[in-house]
Amino acid sequence: GQQVMQIPQYQHVQEGEDFTTYCNSSTTLSNIQWYKQRPGGHPVFLIQLVKSGEVKKQKRLTFQFGEAKKNSSLHITATQTTDVGTYFCAVSGGYQKVTFGTGTKLQVIP
Amino acid sequence: NAGVTQTPKFQVLKTGQSMTLQCAQDMNHEYMSWYRQDPGMGLRLIHYSVGAGITDQGEVPNGYNVSRSTTEDFPLRLLSAAPSQTSVYFCASSLSTTGELFFGEGSRLTVL
């Protein structure tokens, strides 16, 4: 099935610092989704990217899809304690499977 | 709308016991799936279904069975529980395989 590598696995930042997580695939992706999971919670959909080179923003969050559609990034500007959680990318692979990256756990130090 | 409802929220089993995790959605979604989440391993796909009567295996299907007799329900059966199946299980649904996934709140299973 489709596999994506997500880095870093963990990230600790001071409140106010920026944060970026990356997803990389060896094959071309049809689309990529991003989810956030708060501690003790369930994953919640953030956004979907479909077009090559696409950039979408949600307040302090910027999502980017690579030109070759093999990688994607999520960037948070000026992190806040409410950003704490694990961020996952997810891709639709062959045979209609939706598979997730291993996630990046973000800790924000007040 | 309730969205995706999973039961039970917590369960403790002994090795060899069987049980069923229930999942129901009221959004008329065709696509439903089960994931397990273990520390450091993200969400791994167990089984999925693209509609009533159709199921298929994901990345880690061994030890689990599913069926999809209705659009709304997608139960996950553990045939003979093993300690390696201790995990948090999430059910998810969406309109399509490329659409937003809606997750249930999860079921935490411990196998002793």
DSSP helical segment count of chain B: 0
The geometry of chain A reads as globular
Q: Largest sheet of chain B at a glance? A: 7 strands, mixed
Mean pLDDT across all amino acids of chain B? 94
Unreliable residue stretches of chain A: none
Instruction: State the share of residues found in helices of chain B, binned by percent.
Output: under 10%
The outline of chain B comes out as globular
Q: Helix content range of the residues of chain A, please?
A: under 10%
Query: Pair with the most extensive interface?
Result: A-B, 25 and 26 residues
* Low-pLDDT segments of chain B: none
What percentage of the residues of chain B does DSSP assign to strands (E)? over 45%
Gap from first CA to last CA of chain A: 40 Å
H and E order of chain A: EEEEEEEEEEE
SSE arrangement of chain B, N to C: EEEEEEEEEEE
Mean pLDDT of chain A: 94
Structural class of chain B: mainly beta
Structure description:
The complex is a heterodimer of chains A (110) and B (112). Chain A is mainly beta and 110 residues long. Chain A contains no helices and 11 strands. In chain A, strand 4 and strand 5 form a beta hairpin. With 112 residues, chain B is an all-beta fold. The radius of gyration of chain B is 13 Å and the shape is globular. At the A-B interface, strand 5, strand 9 and strand 10 of A face strand 4, strand 5, strand 9 and strand 10 of B.
List keywords for this structure.
heterodimer; A: 110 residues; mainly beta; 6-stranded mixed β-sheet; 5-stranded antiparallel β-sheet; 11 strands; globular; B: 112 residues; 7-stranded mixed β-sheet; 4-stranded antiparallel β-sheet; 0% helix
Brief write-up:
The complex is a heterodimer of chains A (110) and B (112). Chain A has 110 residues and is mostly beta strands.
How is the secondary structure organized here?
The complex is a heterodimer of chains A (110) and B (112).
Chain A: E1 4-7, E2 10-14, E3 19-25, E4 32-37, E5 44-49, E6 55-58, E7 61-65, E8 71-76, E9 85-92, E10 98-100, E11 104-109
Parallel strand pairs in A: 2-11
Antiparallel strand pairs in A: 1-3, 3-8, 4-5, 4-9, 6-7, 7-8, 9-10, 9-11
Chain B: E1 4-7, E2 10-13, E3 19-25, E4 31-37, E5 43-51, E6 54-57, E7 64-66, E8 76-78, E9 87-94, E10 102-103, E11 107-111
Parallel strand pairs in B: 2-11
Antiparallel strand pairs in B: 1-3, 3-8, 4-5, 4-9, 5-6, 7-8, 9-10, 9-11
